[in-house]
Amino acid sequence: MAQLNFSFNTPNYISEEFGGNVLLSISFPSEGYHLVMIEASNDQENWSRIQSEVISLSKEFKFIAPSKSALYRIRCKDEPESATIQETSDSSALHNGILEVVNEAITPVAKTGMAADVNLTAITGLVATQVQAAIAELLQKIQAIGAPITYEGQVIDYGSLPSAGVKKGHMYNVVAAHDNIPAGTNYVWNGTAWDPMTGQIDLSPFLTSAAAQNTYVPLSATNTQTGSDVVRLLAINGSGHAISITPKILAEHILKNVIDETLIAKS
Question: pTM for the whole thing?
C-alpha cells in the first residue's frame, strides 16, 4: 500500500496519476459532505469524470479500470487528510481477462483441431502457476475432442475434390459415383486422404440378373404357354426354387391333360 499524494489546483485538490485496478482508502480531517471524483485521460491533458464517491469521514473502495491504457486521478474539493492506494484485481475483470486469452487460444480448434499457445503475460494480477495449470487442463480437454467435421460444399465428381488448402475435418459432397462408392457420398479429409462416409455393401448373397435368367423362365415369354414348359417350371419349383406361374396357364395345362386322357380312354 502506497501513499497517494495530492496537489492543489484551484479550486480542487488533484492526486497524482495511477493506472489499473486499485484499492483506494481516503479519509478527511472532519465529517462532512466530501465529494471524491475519479477522472480518466488518454493523453494526460483532457480529463473526464468516470466515477464519484461521497465520503463522510473516511472510506475504502475498489476502483476497476475500464481501460488498461488510460491513466486515472482523484479530484476533491476538500483536501484529504490521508490517501493510500494498493494494486488489486477484480474477480469479474480477472474472469473476462482469462476468457479473452483462452478464447483467442482455442479459436483455431474449429479449423485445425489444435489450440494455440496461451500467452500468460496477457493476464495480469494472477498467480501464474494456478492459471497455467487451469488453462493447460482446459486445452487438453479441448484437444482431446479432435477436429470437428465441417461441410465445405459440393463437387461434381471425386476428381474435383480439392488437393490443397484442406484441413482435417473438411467435408465435401460428391455428386457422381466413384469406383464402388455410390453417388451422393460425403467425403471427409482425414489429414492424409479423402475418406468416404459410407461402407461398402456385400452383394454376393443376392441373386444376379445373369443367374436369374439361367434359373427362371420369364412369364412374358411365348413358350411358357406350352405344356412342356409348364411341366419344366413345376419341376424346377419342386426342386426348391420359388416359381410363380399364372392360374390361367396352369388351368389350361390341366384341362388339356384331362381332355387328352379322356380321348385316349374312349379310343
Answer: 0.36
